[in-house]
Amino acid sequence: xxxxxxxxxxxxxxxxxxxxxxxxxxxxxxxxxxxxxxxxxxxxxxxxxxxxxxxxxxxxxxxxxxxxxxxxxxxxxxxxxxxxxxxxxxxxxxxxxxxxxxxxxxxxxxxxxxxxxxxxxxxxxxxxxxxxxxxxxxxxxxxxxxxxxxxxxxxxxxxxxxxxxxxxxxxxxxxxxxxxxxxxxxxxxxxxxxxxxxxxxxxxxxxxxxxxxxxxxxxxxxxxxxxxxxxxxxxxxxxxxxxxxxxxxxxxxxxxxxxxxxxxxxxxxxxxxxxxxxxxxxxxxxxxxxxxxxxxxxxxxxxxxxxxxxxxxxxxxxxxxxxxxxxxxxxxxxxxxxxxxxxxx
Length: 345
What we know:
- The structure is a single chain.
- The protein has 10 helices and 15 strands.
- It has helices at residues 13-22, 54-57, 71-83, 98-108, 126-137, 167-170, 174-190, 292-305, 315-330, 333-338, and strands at 4-9, 28-34, 42-43, 49-51, 64-67, 87-91, 116-119, 143-151, 193-201, 212-219, 224-230, 237-244, 247-252, 264-270, 281-287.
- Helix 1 crosses helix 8 (292-305) and helix 4 packs antiparallel against helix 9 (315-330).
- The protein is globular and about 70 Å long.
- Residues 128-249 form the GFO/IDH/MocA-like oxidoreductase domain.
- InterPro entries: Gfo/Idh/MocA-like_OxRdtase_N, Gfo/Idh/MocA_Oxidoreductase, GFO_IDH_MocA-like_dom, NAD(P)-bd_dom_sf.
- Pfam families: GFO_IDH_MocA, GFO_IDH_MocA_C3.
């Protein structure tokens, strides 16, 4: 089987990490990259060509494009990749707003043979996959409610570029950048939320994007979700409680490149309200490896090589998750008015 020729648009921290896992795949080969940080076009030591502009990258003979660019240009480059006849993998978020992903989907429909996948990486963590398997088995019954927290200590951490604090580039703050993961996971476990109330704040760091988002939401079936996406969580934390009719699934910690969110665990609670006195039997699984980045690339390649539909990170997932993020923004009347947030359709 021939190797798929891959280009990477955006060769910063995430682009280089994506390359690491592409290099491990026997049927993928990175042949060219682009990044505005390059002073000129040229060739790297490993014979990979590099460009300053993504339009020059797209002149290469490619099969697939990995988009690791800022939110203001992600949708534009994704569309350009599809128009060039390429399969596209784009990092989250899919753009600055809902309109960006709507435009992408309009173009995606023109090319039904091409695969488009979004990098909602957390879905590929072992703890998430195991919790989803238990949920779908039905052994703990139906979901009653969820409580989620995803927090870091600043909007800019670990020498990241400062574009995340600029509304004109990012489109939003901690909720759109990091909190989008917990929004996506709550949708994965509970379905679509319709009734939403929220408070949004940029009162601490004083940028024109939020440093905290608080929301309480309800699905058509009555499942309630509560979340806090925070950039004032001094001890970095990821936590998601999923309470069901016969027990709970508690996701704590997440393995990441920074290692700052603690051990990744899944605690399975087996409730017996008549006999356990509020202290039920539980089992905790601790994960010591993060296969998610590798598994995500394997899944993308499998979709292309074997003409399979995308399972996780579809454009529909991206659209519905973006809609929920912006419904949370819209539901705070003060924030809505301050930044002219439109209600997602």
